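Internal ticket #5521
Category: modeling
Description: The requester needs a full-assembly model to guide mutagenesis choices. All entity lines are attached below as received. Residue total reported by intake: 318.
Assigned to: D.W.
Attached entities:
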Amino acid sequence: MNDVYNEQFLYRAIELANNNIKNGTGGPFAAVVVKNGEIIAESVNTVACDNDPTAHAEVNVIREACKKMKDFQLTGCQMYTSCEPCPMCLGAIYWARPDVVFFAASQKDAAFGGFDDEFIYTEIEKPKMERTIPFIQKPIPEGRKVFENWNNADNKTRY
Amino acid sequence: MNDVYNEQFLYRAIELANNNIKNGTGGPFAAVVVKNGEIIAESVNTVACDNDPTAHAEVNVIREACKKMKDFQLTGCQMYTSCEPCPMCLGAIYWARPDVVFFAASQKDAAFGGFDDEFIYTEIEKPKMERTIPFIQKPIPEGRKVFENWNNADNKTRY
């Protein structure tokens, strides 16, 4: 695993986050992806300006870096992010699989700015029906059948 | 909260998931967003064909529905998804805030198809440094300062 840390990249993420505030272009978050000591992608939070609740800095930078790499994996890459990733971004990071994530501010610092990621971490642990947004299973047999069809398909790309 | 269930929408999500397998265009997942009894967005998983590890059906359908609504919230909407959302999608759903999520297949069914969402749910609960992908905090003061700047900014859109 390549987990070498270089503070200049974390300062760069923070600079981008501050620029995003100054420019009024989104939330106070930014992230960069580094490979072989070079930044291959930089992104800021664009939730409000893109009307996209998934457009967090980490999700944006994963998309951008993967586009550059022409791959859906970030093997051999490091992510630097101005703030601790929220649960959505944590999930995105696990699917993208960079080698390591370095972050500066904590969830607590984010809460001080009015961003309550802790709430979602708590919700994940609740039984599905007791969540603020209920997740209700309708276990119709056709649901599982999809995965039988997938297992039997010849033309699939596993990811 | 509008949590009326209509099975035709769940069957539609499953149909789209099966089509995605047949067409070889992505993973065996699909989702639809419904408002006032009408589908406003339909999406499939496009991870492999878009080289985008975040392009799960739920994330795609949230992006699509928000674009249609010109909003970053899905208030008054229901999501129907062929399979239980992974942690990334759960997070995305919390940021988008539909009223309810209905799903057919379970995480266990997904595991049968080779999709190990359970792994990420387990990783979330681990101490950050013990995760398979280490999340390492470098608590430089400039990190928290970003949120002070945010709190002091006049031109921000809270989301």
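Resolution: model delivered.
Comment from assignee: The two ends of chain B are 20 Å apart (CA to CA).
Ticket closed.
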